[in-house]
C-alpha cells in the first residue's frame, strides 16, 4: 500500500512539542503542507523552523484552542495562503491529576475547556471549509482514559470520553459531505505531559506491566496512525475510537507473558 498525502493541507493543534510535534513533522515528510498551532509561542517558533526545512509552504501560529476568534483568523489566513484545508488533527490537550477532594473547580474547567471545548471550536471552524470541498479528515486525540479512567484523574478521563463521543456524533453529522471524523486512544507515550521516562525503574516496570506489548509507545506510533487516517486508504473509517495503546486492555494480566518464573 502506498500512502500519498502529497499537497494536502493539515492543521495540527498542540504541535509545539511531544506527540503533536511528531505528527506535524511526519505529515510534512509525507508531502503535506502543515499548519502548526500551539499556545506556546517559543515551541511553535522552533517547530515552524523545523517544518520550513522540510516544506517552505508550511505555516506556524500561536493559538490557544479556547480562543474562537484566533482560530477563525488563523484558518482564514492559512486557507488564503494554501487554498484548502484537508486534515484537522485536534492533538492539543492538558492533564491534571488529583483526588476529587483536592481537584479544584478551576483545574476541572481548564481540562474540559482545552480538551473538549477546544476540539469543538476547532471542528466548528474548520467544517465550513471541508464542507465546501466535500471532503475532509478530522482526527481527535482521545486517550485510553476515555475507555478506562486512571485513578485520581477523573477530570482528564471525563474530557477524553467526551472527545470520543463528540467524535461519533460529528461523524454522523459530517458524513454526507465525505468528511470522516475519528478519534484515537494512545496508551503510554513518554512526553512532558506525563514524564513516564523519568520515573524510577520500579515504577516504570509497574506501568509497563499493564501493557500487552511491554514497551512505551513512541510518538511515531501515533504519527503513523495519523498518516493512515488522513489518507485516501482510510476513506471508509469514521466515528471510530482507535486503540493505539500496545494492547492495554487486550489481555487481563499481560505481565504473565513476560515474567515467567
Ligand atoms: N502521552 C501520552 O501517553 C498520551 C496518552 C493519551 C492521550 N494523549 C493525548 O495526546 C495529546 C498530546 O499529548 P502529549 O503527551 O504530546 O502532551 P504534551 O503536554 O507534551 O503536548 C501537548 C501540547 O498541547 C499544547 N497545548 C496545551 N494547551 C493548549 C491550548 N489551550 N491551545 C493550544 N495548544 C495547547 C501544549 O503547549 C503542548 O505543546 C494530548 O491531547 C493528550 O491528552 C497522550
Short description:
The chain is of the alpha/beta class.
What would your notes on this structure say?
The structure is a single chain. The protein has seven helices and seven strands, in the order E-H-E-H-E-H-E-H-E-H-E-H-H-E. Helices cover 43% and strands 14% of the residues. The chain has a single domain, classed as NAD(P)-binding Rossmann-like Domain (Rossmann fold), CATH 3.40.50.720. A seven-stranded parallel beta sheet has the order 3-2-1-4-5-6-7, sandwiched between helices. The structure holds nicotinamide-adenine-dinucleotide (NAD). Nicotinamide-adenine-dinucleotide (NAD) is lined by residues 13-14, 16-20, 38-40, 43, 64-66, 91-94, 114, 118, 141, 143, 186, 188-189, 191-194.
Q: Segments where pLDDT lies below 50 for 5+ residues?
A: none
The total strand number stands at 7
Total number of domains: 1
Give the helix/strand class. alpha/beta
Helical segment count: 7
Mean pLDDT: 97
Order of helices and strands: EHEHEHEHEHEHHE
Classified in CATH, the superfamily is NAD(P)-binding Rossmann-like Domain
**Main CATH class:** Alpha Beta
Spatial strand sequence of the major β-sheet = 3-2-1-4-5-6-7
What attributes characterize this protein structure?
261 residues; alpha/beta; Rossmann fold; globular; binds nicotinamide-adenine-dinucleotide
Task: Give the arrangement of secondary structure elements.
Elements: E1 9-12, H1 18-29, E2 33-38, H2 41-54, E3 59-62, H3 68-82, E4 87-90, H4 105-133, E5 136-141, H5 154-174, E6 179-186, H6 201-208, H7 219-230, E7 241-244
Parallel strand pairs: 1-2, 1-4, 2-3, 4-5, 5-6, 6-7
Helix pairs in contact: 1-2, 1-7, 3-4, 4-5
Bound molecules: nicotinamide-adenine-dinucleotide (NAD).
Amino acid at each position: 500500500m502506498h500512502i500519498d498525502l502529497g499537497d494536502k493541507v493539515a492543521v495540527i493543534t498542540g504541535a509545539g512539542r511531544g506527540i503533536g510535534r511528531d505528527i506535524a513533522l511526519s505529515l510534512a515528510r509525507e508531502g503535506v503542507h502543515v499548519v502548526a498551532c500551539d499556545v506556546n509561542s517559543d515551541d511553535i517558533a522552533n517547530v515552524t523552523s523545523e517544518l520550513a526545512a522540510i516544506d517552505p509552504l508550511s505555516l506556524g501560529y500561536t493559538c490557544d484552542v479556547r480562543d474562537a476568534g484566533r482560530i477563525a483568523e488563523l484558518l482564514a489566513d492559512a486557507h488564503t495562503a494554501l487554498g484548502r484545508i484537508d486534515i484537522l488533527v485536534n492533538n492539543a490537550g492538558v492533564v491534571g491529576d488529583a483526588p476529587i477532594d483536592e481537584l479544584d473547580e478551576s483545574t476541572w474547567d481548564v481540562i474540559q475547556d482545552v480538551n473538549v471545548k477546544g476540539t469543538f471550536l476547532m471542528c466548528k471552524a474548520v467544517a465550513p471549509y471541508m464542507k465546501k470541498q466535500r471532503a475532509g479528515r478530522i482526527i481527535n486525540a482521545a486517550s485510553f482514559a476515555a475507555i478506562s479512567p486512571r485513578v485520581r484523574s477523573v477530570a482528564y478521563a471525563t474530557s477524553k470520553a467526551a472527545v470520543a463521543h463528540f467524535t461519533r456524533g460529528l461523524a454522523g453529522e459530517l458524513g454526507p459531505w465525505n468528511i470522516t471524523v475519528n478519534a484515537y486512544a494512545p496508551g503510554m507515550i513518554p512526553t512532558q505531559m506525563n514524564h513516564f521516562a523519568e520515573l524510577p525503574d520500579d515504577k516504570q516496570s509497574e506501568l509497563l506491566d499493564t501493557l500487552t506489548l511491554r514497551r512505551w509507545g513512541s510518538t511515531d506510533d501515533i504519527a503513523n496512525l495519523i498518516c493512515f487516517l488522513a489518507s485516501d486508504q482510510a476513506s471508509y473509517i469514521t466515528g471510530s475510537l482507535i486503540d493505539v495503546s500496545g494492547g492495554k486492555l487486550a489481555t487481563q494480566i499481560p505481565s504473565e507473558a513476560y515474567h515467567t518464573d
